[in-house]
Write a structure and sequence with these properties.
The structure is a homodimer. Chain A is of the alpha/beta class. Chain A folds into 2 domains: 2-172, Rossmann fold, CATH 3.40.50; 176-360, Dehydroquinate synthase-like, alpha domain (Up-down Bundle), CATH 1.20.1090.10. Chain A is 48% helix and 18% strand. Chain A has helices spanning 25-31, 44-60, 79-91, 106-118, 132-138, 176-193, 195-203, 205-209, 213-233, 248-257, 265-282, 288-300, 312-321, 349-360; strands at residues 2-6, 13-18, 37-43, 64-70, 99-104, 125-129, 143-148, 151-158, 163-167, 332-337, 340-344. In chain A, helix 5 packs parallel to helix 6 (176-193) and helix 11 (265-282) crosses helix 14. The longest helix of chain A has 21 residues, at 213-233. Chain A is globular. Chain A starts with a strand and ends with a helix. Chains A and B meet through helix 3, strand 7 and strand 8 of A and helix 3, strand 7 and strand 8 of B.
């Protein structure tokens, strides 16, 4: 088991990464000062697979634990579903020292984090991400949220977990397409920060896609380290943290325009990364070779390069409404070379238009 | 205009207190680095009185301001009403630098603070409390929340405003009973922390109840100073801040048992302070003279000394369920002498029972 420290907040916290680490959840929680009652929030699918096991592990470590499963899928990230979880928390008598454990993918993690951040004005929480996407992205960094009918993740907080437990063995049950979705974020880390990780991904697509533990452990650990380093420097997303949104500006627009279902989050980000790379080249910030390298790795990992279902006219309004826009300006994360990006808020709309034409045809 | 600094969070913030300070709201917001769009959250009653005036003041200072009024009363502190405010915030295009202005009493302040704490994971907010209770208590210290069907203030955050503007002139339109409700909290500050304030209240009930500006200014400023000092030492209510709950343990139970309507918050706290004082004497922590002094000032300010509508059996479960209870233990704030309190979590239930009998007969 490897440990990545995240130095954020008062005391910071650790991400534990390894094979079959789930069995150590209770003891790790105890070692991190947690005790008493624990509400394990999960979805019906993940709960059916690992719910009983987790309750057993927590009981053995002395916790009084109960399970609450929400319906799988993005619709559970709502204030209405949150209200049902609050009811459960109240009736089982969770107090300020009790723990919320998020057992699931990004939806469960974001919802559980929002509950933990706001129940009694904040109680401890623990992330046990069960998808690659959640392991390398949403479970690290403390961004928690629910959706509003008018937009995703509009209601939330910056609220750090007490620990994150990543069990690579859980990925064995993950469908191929969800694995690829997580890999899009791993590719992103390579592009924004680490040419070595990028090159590892280029050379090792076979073991990665075959879910070989050693390969997964390497890319997950490196992704967590990169994200932790960025978040440590800018927890509240005032500047540097924005680089984590590479590919997300167009990605969010594609997701929204296709009704959050046609493309997974990672697939949308892949399309967005192609767009952001092309935009960078069009602005003379990177070479066409860099764009081709990025297109190549995305294809290598079975991720889409464009969204022919979308149109420029429909995508444009979503870009402007993106929640990272400040004063109506879009903050574009653009690439200089593999491992190095920059932020620009003065990209001419004409150029953006051309790129959107490209990725939607 | 006087200024009380609250050294909490990254930069701290100021409470501005004076007569007719409302006119300076826009310029003070500007001086505190705020700019752009502002959503003024109020209730229908306060909005009718001061809404247009505040929009004018903000427009003059360069803000693009809009008003949103929720129905008056505690029922507006719900996730459902919060959702309507989020919709307004989204459709008017508030971004991360925009401001939420709370114009109203505790309900509006708590709701607005919850919105500000969670919209886009937190945007700036400003408190303009219009009741005495909000001016001396809820607007200071950053506790924001909405209610859940199963209990009050169970969903919220610790989230500090960028500034608090107290205009004493606004209290001239405040009904007598609401004034008394706020005065209960002022009396509390005297008991927990400041014998001088207590003695000022004893000697000046006439000018205070007549709303003489000088008297109001004095007790409001002193109350804010005391609360600020406590909050600075313990923002998240781990220990010291609990002393602010003097009178609130029984007070909350009385409020809940009588359906949040029969007694105002301040009236319930007054009853709770009588109960807590009697409990302190029963435990040998203070003299009967101290209890009498407290009963006397509460009567002097037209506040109730007991709740004959309640019964011990009904109050008891509310005490245990209070959100400050940790591991099922009630943290009692008890009085040693005027200006000095202590916290005890091992009060025998029998003694509590006796005191509840006393205040309900």
């Amino acid at each position: 088991m490897e440990e990545v420290k995240v130095k954020v907040g008062q005391d910071g916290y650790s991400i534990y990464i390894g094979q079959h680490t789930l069995a150590q959840l209770g003891s790790l929680m105890g070692r991190n000062g947690l005790t008493g009652k624990a509400l394990v929030l999960t979805d019906a699918q993940v709960g059916a697979l690992y719910g009983e096991q987790v309750l057993g592990i927590l009981a053995e470590a002395g916790f009084t634990a109960e399970l609450f499963a929400v319906p799988p899928g993005e619709d559970s990230k709502s204030l209405a579903v949150a209200e049902t979880v609050f009811s459960k928390a109240i009736t089982m008598g969770l107090d300020r020292k009790s723990v919320i454990v998020a057992l699931g993918g990004g939806v469960v993690g974001d919802l559980a984090g929002f509950i933990a951040a706001t129940y009694l004005r904040g109680i401890p929480f623990v992330q046990v991400p069960t998808t690659l996407l959640a392991q390398v992205d949403s479970s690290v960094g403390g961004k928690v949220a629910v959706n509003h009918a008018l937009g995703k993740n509009l209601i939330g907080a910056f609220y750090q977990p007490r620990l994150v437990l990543i069990d690579i063995a859980l990925l064995q049950s993950l469908p191929e397409r969800e694995l690829a979705s997580g890999l899009a974020e791993v590719i992103k880390y390579g592009i924004i920060e680490d040419a070595d990780l990028f090159s590892y991904l280029q050379k090792n697509s076979r073991p990665v896609l075959a879910k070989e533990p050693e390969a997964l452990q390497h890319i997950i650990k490196r992704s967590c380290e990169i994200k932790a380093a960025v978040v440590e420097q800018d927890e509240k997303e005032n500047s540097l943290r924005m680089i984590l949104n590479f590919g997300h500006t167009i990605g969010h627009a594609v997701e929204a325009d296709t009704g959050f279902g046609l493309y997974s989050h990672g697939e949308s980000v892949a399309i967005g990364m192609v767009g952001a790379a092309s935009l960078s080249a069009a602005l003379g910030l990177c070479s066409q070779e860099t764009v081709d390298t990025i297109r190549c790795i995305i294809a290598q990992y079975n991720l889409p390069l464009g969204a022919p279902e979308c149109t420029t006219d429909r995508l444009m309004p979503f870009l402007v409404r993106d929640k990272k826009a400040v004063g109506g300006k879009i903050h574009w994360v653009l690439v200089r070379s593999i491992g190095s990006v920059l932020i620009k808020d003065d990209v001419p709309p004409m150029t953006v238009d051309e790129i959107l034409q490209e990725i939607t045809c």
